[in-house]
Specification:
Layout lengths: L10 E4 L14 H10 L14 E5 L6 E4 L5 E3 L3 E4 L10 E4 L7 E3 L4 E5 L1 E4 L2 E2 L3 E2 L3 E3 L4 E10 L2 E2 L5 E2 L3 E3 L2 E10 L11 E3 L2 E5 L4
Parallel strand pairs: 1-2, 2-5, 3-6, 4-7, 5-8, 6-9, 7-12, 8-13, 9-13, 10-14, 11-15, 12-16, 13-17, 16-18, 17-19
Length: 203
Amino acid sequence: MMHSGVLQAATITVDTADDDTIVNGNCTLREAISAATANGSVDACVGGNDVNDTIVFDQTLEDSTITLAGTELTVTSGLTIDGDTNADDAPNITVDANGESRGFSINTSEPVTLNGIKVSGGVNAAFGEGGGIFAGSSSNLTVSNSSISDNGSASNHYIDGLGIFSRGILTLDNVELRNNNLGSGSNGQALNVKTATILNSVI
Protein backbone atom coordinates (compact mmCIF):
# COMPACT_ATOMS: atom_id res chain seq x y z
CA MET A 1 0.00 0.00 0.00
CA MET A 2 1.32 3.43 -0.88
CA HIS A 3 1.20 6.24 1.67
CA SER A 4 1.44 9.90 0.87
CA GLY A 5 3.48 12.19 3.07
CA VAL A 6 5.75 15.16 3.26
CA LEU A 7 8.83 14.83 1.12
CA GLN A 8 11.96 14.81 3.28
CA ALA A 9 15.18 16.56 2.35
CA ALA A 10 18.02 14.29 1.34
CA THR A 11 21.43 14.22 3.02
CA ILE A 12 24.19 13.68 0.46
CA THR A 13 27.65 12.72 1.76
CA VAL A 14 30.80 13.78 -0.07
CA ASP A 15 33.48 11.11 0.38
CA THR A 16 36.44 12.46 -1.61
CA ALA A 17 38.35 15.72 -1.96
CA ASP A 18 38.64 15.20 -5.73
CA ASP A 19 36.83 17.53 -8.11
CA ASP A 20 35.47 15.57 -11.06
CA THR A 21 32.29 14.20 -12.63
CA ILE A 22 33.80 10.86 -13.64
CA VAL A 23 31.72 7.80 -12.79
CA ASN A 24 34.25 6.08 -10.54
CA GLY A 25 32.34 5.02 -7.43
CA ASN A 26 32.81 8.09 -5.25
CA CYS A 27 30.89 11.27 -4.49
CA THR A 28 32.62 14.58 -5.16
CA LEU A 29 31.24 17.93 -4.05
CA ARG A 30 30.52 18.84 -7.67
CA GLU A 31 28.63 15.56 -8.17
CA ALA A 32 26.74 16.07 -4.89
CA ILE A 33 25.52 19.49 -6.06
CA SER A 34 24.41 17.91 -9.36
CA ALA A 35 22.58 15.12 -7.51
CA ALA A 36 20.74 17.63 -5.34
CA THR A 37 19.76 19.67 -8.37
CA ALA A 38 18.70 16.73 -10.55
CA ASN A 39 16.89 14.87 -7.74
CA GLY A 40 18.63 11.73 -8.94
CA SER A 41 21.78 9.84 -8.06
CA VAL A 42 25.08 10.92 -9.64
CA ASP A 43 27.98 8.48 -9.41
CA ALA A 44 27.98 7.42 -5.72
CA CYS A 45 25.94 10.45 -4.56
CA VAL A 46 22.35 9.77 -3.55
CA GLY A 47 19.74 11.88 -5.30
CA GLY A 48 18.10 14.96 -3.89
CA ASN A 49 14.43 15.15 -2.95
CA ASP A 50 13.28 18.41 -4.57
CA VAL A 51 13.45 20.28 -1.25
CA ASN A 52 16.33 21.99 0.55
CA ASP A 53 18.77 19.09 0.59
CA THR A 54 21.95 19.04 2.69
CA ILE A 55 25.43 18.12 1.55
CA VAL A 56 27.78 16.94 4.30
CA PHE A 57 31.32 15.58 4.26
CA ASP A 58 32.65 12.26 5.47
CA GLN A 59 34.54 12.61 8.76
CA THR A 60 37.72 11.42 7.04
CA LEU A 61 37.69 14.67 5.03
CA GLU A 62 37.97 16.94 8.07
CA ASP A 63 40.38 19.82 7.29
CA SER A 64 40.64 18.73 3.65
CA THR A 65 41.02 21.03 0.65
CA ILE A 66 38.96 20.55 -2.49
CA THR A 67 40.92 22.13 -5.33
CA LEU A 68 38.57 23.00 -8.18
CA ALA A 69 39.49 21.77 -11.63
CA GLY A 70 39.11 25.10 -13.41
CA THR A 71 35.40 25.97 -13.11
CA GLU A 72 33.23 27.36 -10.33
CA LEU A 73 30.65 25.33 -8.39
CA THR A 74 27.21 26.45 -9.55
CA VAL A 75 24.18 26.06 -7.26
CA THR A 76 20.79 26.32 -8.97
CA SER A 77 18.43 24.90 -6.32
CA GLY A 78 17.82 25.27 -2.59
CA LEU A 79 20.69 23.62 -0.76
CA THR A 80 22.79 23.57 2.41
CA ILE A 81 26.47 22.70 2.10
CA ASP A 82 27.78 21.95 5.60
CA GLY A 83 31.53 21.68 5.96
CA ASP A 84 31.57 21.93 9.75
CA THR A 85 32.48 18.26 10.17
CA ASN A 86 33.14 18.43 13.91
CA ALA A 87 30.46 20.93 15.00
CA ASP A 88 33.00 23.50 16.23
CA ASP A 89 31.38 26.44 14.40
CA ALA A 90 34.45 26.84 12.19
CA PRO A 91 35.31 25.85 8.62
CA ASN A 92 36.62 22.30 8.25
CA ILE A 93 36.45 22.11 4.45
CA THR A 94 38.32 24.42 2.08
CA VAL A 95 37.16 25.03 -1.49
CA ASP A 96 40.18 26.37 -3.36
CA ALA A 97 39.50 27.71 -6.84
CA ASN A 98 43.26 27.72 -7.49
CA GLY A 99 43.21 31.10 -9.21
CA GLU A 100 41.21 29.79 -12.18
CA SER A 101 37.56 30.65 -11.41
CA ARG A 102 35.23 31.81 -8.67
CA GLY A 103 34.57 29.35 -5.87
CA PHE A 104 30.76 29.42 -6.01
CA SER A 105 28.04 30.93 -8.18
CA ILE A 106 24.55 30.96 -6.61
CA ASN A 107 21.75 31.20 -9.18
CA THR A 108 18.45 30.30 -7.53
CA SER A 109 15.71 32.08 -5.57
CA GLU A 110 15.55 29.16 -3.11
CA PRO A 111 17.52 29.53 0.14
CA VAL A 112 21.16 28.44 -0.02
CA THR A 113 23.44 28.06 3.00
CA LEU A 114 27.21 27.63 3.03
CA ASN A 115 28.27 26.59 6.54
CA GLY A 116 31.73 25.68 7.78
CA ILE A 117 33.39 26.35 4.41
CA LYS A 118 36.56 28.27 3.59
CA VAL A 119 36.45 29.75 0.09
CA SER A 120 39.85 30.74 -1.24
CA GLY A 121 41.78 31.14 -4.47
CA GLY A 122 38.75 32.48 -6.32
CA VAL A 123 39.18 35.00 -9.10
CA ASN A 124 37.04 36.84 -11.57
CA ALA A 125 39.06 36.83 -14.77
CA ALA A 126 37.10 39.67 -16.34
CA PHE A 127 35.61 42.99 -15.27
CA GLY A 128 32.56 42.02 -13.22
CA GLU A 129 31.25 40.88 -9.88
CA GLY A 130 32.51 38.48 -7.24
CA GLY A 131 35.92 36.92 -6.79
CA GLY A 132 35.18 34.15 -4.27
CA ILE A 133 31.36 33.94 -4.40
CA PHE A 134 28.75 35.46 -6.71
CA ALA A 135 25.03 35.40 -5.85
CA GLY A 136 22.42 36.51 -8.40
CA SER A 137 19.60 39.02 -8.18
CA SER A 138 16.97 36.60 -6.84
CA SER A 139 19.31 34.82 -4.44
CA ASN A 140 18.84 34.24 -0.71
CA LEU A 141 22.30 33.26 0.52
CA THR A 142 23.47 32.62 4.08
CA VAL A 143 27.15 32.12 4.80
CA SER A 144 27.91 31.00 8.37
CA ASN A 145 30.89 29.80 10.41
CA SER A 146 33.05 30.30 7.35
CA SER A 147 36.04 32.12 5.91
CA ILE A 148 36.26 33.92 2.57
CA SER A 149 39.90 34.73 2.05
CA ASP A 150 42.63 35.13 -0.57
CA ASN A 151 40.24 35.80 -3.44
CA GLY A 152 40.30 38.67 -5.91
CA SER A 153 40.56 39.77 -9.49
CA ALA A 154 42.81 38.35 -12.17
CA SER A 155 45.28 40.74 -13.82
CA ASN A 156 44.05 43.62 -11.62
CA HIS A 157 40.72 43.84 -13.45
CA TYR A 158 38.05 46.00 -11.87
CA ILE A 159 35.50 43.86 -10.02
CA ASP A 160 32.97 44.53 -7.27
CA GLY A 161 33.04 42.31 -4.20
CA LEU A 162 36.44 40.65 -4.24
CA GLY A 163 35.37 38.16 -1.58
CA ILE A 164 31.63 37.98 -2.22
CA PHE A 165 29.17 39.88 -4.37
CA SER A 166 25.42 39.46 -3.86
CA ARG A 167 22.62 41.04 -5.87
CA GLY A 168 20.03 39.39 -3.63
CA ILE A 169 19.52 38.75 0.09
CA LEU A 170 22.77 38.05 1.92
CA THR A 171 23.36 36.98 5.53
CA LEU A 172 26.85 36.67 6.96
CA ASP A 173 27.03 35.06 10.41
CA ASN A 174 30.41 34.36 12.04
CA VAL A 175 32.29 34.92 8.79
CA GLU A 176 35.79 36.26 8.32
CA LEU A 177 36.69 38.06 5.10
CA ARG A 178 40.40 38.75 4.79
CA ASN A 179 43.24 39.06 2.32
CA ASN A 180 40.90 39.41 -0.65
CA ASN A 181 43.45 41.36 -2.63
CA LEU A 182 42.24 44.53 -4.22
CA GLY A 183 42.75 44.77 -7.94
CA SER A 184 43.15 48.14 -9.60
CA GLY A 185 39.96 50.09 -8.86
CA SER A 186 38.17 47.10 -7.32
CA ASN A 187 35.53 47.73 -4.74
CA GLY A 188 35.34 46.09 -1.34
CA GLN A 189 35.80 42.79 0.47
CA ALA A 190 32.05 42.09 0.44
CA LEU A 191 29.45 44.07 -1.45
CA ASN A 192 25.69 43.63 -1.52
CA VAL A 193 23.26 45.73 -3.53
CA LYS A 194 19.91 44.63 -2.09
CA THR A 195 19.63 43.40 1.53
CA ALA A 196 22.46 42.42 3.88
CA THR A 197 22.52 41.16 7.47
CA ILE A 198 25.96 40.88 9.05
CA LEU A 199 26.38 39.20 12.44
CA ASN A 200 29.52 38.42 14.45
CA SER A 201 31.69 38.80 11.36
CA VAL A 202 35.04 40.38 10.49
CA ILE A 203 35.21 42.29 7.20
